[in-house]
């Protein structure tokens, strides 16, 4: 079957190619653009890792400061409302500040745009400012894109606890809200053996699934006959990064509704460690106690996934988290909204106070 995607728009949340945080990008794009797929691809991705950021857009912090406040903004708070992209050449693996021009050794059809923003921001710029980012390419509006592919994410995006925080899912949701079909693609690794053969096999499986979903995307009947099915806004694909995955089943799944229960995603640092590692000039603890003030606590990103694994192990069959643990690829159809409970008991009529 010949599947034509005029322009597949690709984003992800792990940033540009990096052996640790973003090891899948180059191989996936090579598979997507090579025979037998031969898709046309536009790449707009964050310039740095933006995992766990959901469908956020980064806005500058308030300029208001409280009386007596001396703490300078942290690095991740130094955000402005101006974005200046850079340009990545996947052939030389180099980054440039200027847009490639026709005839330059960096071909205008090959470069990727690196945006100092989130996956959702990349979607906005890629869909609505394509001509600005790629001035030497033919004009292209948001309606000219057949599909937005967000990924492949470095790690699984299964179960609600992960998916609701995912920048990869967030990018796909942003595209859906913009009226463009989208697919979030994630590779679930089980060991740190992430060789190119495994990545290529997972990329080929992911691309074949993307092709089928795009071709068979449900849509209401054009003949006027009643349509009784469901039309997804987006799909979430999770491919296990393991040898032989191409021979394993590809299963429709539902997203496991699980919670973080036993602890925080952060751990608090001891006061002494806080004092030594804060990175800014802090008040001496002894001096602070003399003046009747305590030292400010600090926290470190240190998520524990034990809760999540337990909920998956105890869950019924058919959900995304359990399916990928069997070595099968998971495909979850989704709608880009918060499903409401209005009209279902007891949420009917008026709320009585």
How are the secondary structure elements laid out?
Blueprint: E1 8-11, H1 25-33, E2 41-46, E3 86-89, E4 94-96, E5 112-115, H2 119-128, H3 130-133, E6 147-154, H4 159-163, H5 167-177, E7 182-188, H6 196-215, E8 234-240, E9 250-252, E10 266-268, H7 271-277, H8 285-290, E11 299-301, H9 306-313, H10 320-325, E12 329-334
Parallel strand pairs: 1-2, 1-6, 2-5, 6-7, 7-8, 9-12
Antiparallel strand pairs: 3-4, 3-5, 8-12, 10-11
Helix pairs in contact: 1-6, 2-5
Can you give a write-up of this model?
By secondary structure, this protein is an alpha/beta fold. It is 24% helix and 16% strand. It has helices at residues 25-33, 119-128, 130-133, 159-163, 167-177, 196-215, 271-277, 285-290, 306-313, 320-325, and strands spanning 8-11, 41-46, 86-89, 94-96, 112-115, 147-154, 182-188, 234-240, 250-252, 266-268, 299-301, 329-334. The strands form 2 sheets. Strands 4-3-5-2-1-6-7-8-12-9 form a 10-stranded mixed sheet, sandwiched between helices. Strand 7 (182-188), helix 6 and strand 8 form a beta-alpha-beta unit.
């Amino acid at each position: 079957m010949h599947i034509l995607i005029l322009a597949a728009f690709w984003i992800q949340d792990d940033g540009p190619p990096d052996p640790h945080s973003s090891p899948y990008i180059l191989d996936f794009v090579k598979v997507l653009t090579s025979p037998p797929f031969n898709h046309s691809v536009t790449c707009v991705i964050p310039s740095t890792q933006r995992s766990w950021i959901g469908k956020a857009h980064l806005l500058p912090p308030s300029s208001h400061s409280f009386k007596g406040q001396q703490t300078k903004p942290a690095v991740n708070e130094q955000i402005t409302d101006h974005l200046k992209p850079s340009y990545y050449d996947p052939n030389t693996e180099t980054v440039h500040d200027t847009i490639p021009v026709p005839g330059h050794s960096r071909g205008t059809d090959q470069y990727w745009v690196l945006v100092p923003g989130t996956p959702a921001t990349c979607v906005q710029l890629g869909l609505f400012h394509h001509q600005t980012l790629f001035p030497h390419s033919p004009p292209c509006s948001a309606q000219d894109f057949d599909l937005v592919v967000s990924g492949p994410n470095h790690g699984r995006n299964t179960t609600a606890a992960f998916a609701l925080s995912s920048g990869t899912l967030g990018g796909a949701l942003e595209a859906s809200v913009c009226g463009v079909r989208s697919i979030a693609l994630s590779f679930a690794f089980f060991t740190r053996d992430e060789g190119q053969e495994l990545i290529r096999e997972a990329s080929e499986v992911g691309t074949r699934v993307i092709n089928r979903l795009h071709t068979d995307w449900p849509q209401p009947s054009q003949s006027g006959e009643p349509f009784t099915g469901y039309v997804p806004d987006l799909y979430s694909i999770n491919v296990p990064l393991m040898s032989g995955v191409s021979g394993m089943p590809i299963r429709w799944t539902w997203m496991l509704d699980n919670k973080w229960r036993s602890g925080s995603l952060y751990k608090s640092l001891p006061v002494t460690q806080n004092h030594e590692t804060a990175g800014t000039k802090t008040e001496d603890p002894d001096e602070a106690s003399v003046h009747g003030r305590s030292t400010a606590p600090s926290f470190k990103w240190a998520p524990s996934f034990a809760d999540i694994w337990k909920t998956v192990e105890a869950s019924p069959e058919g959900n995304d988290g359990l399916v990928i643990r069997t070595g099968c690829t998971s495909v979850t159809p989704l709608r880009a909204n918060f499903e409401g409970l209005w009209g279902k008991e007891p949420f009917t009529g008026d709320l009585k106070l």
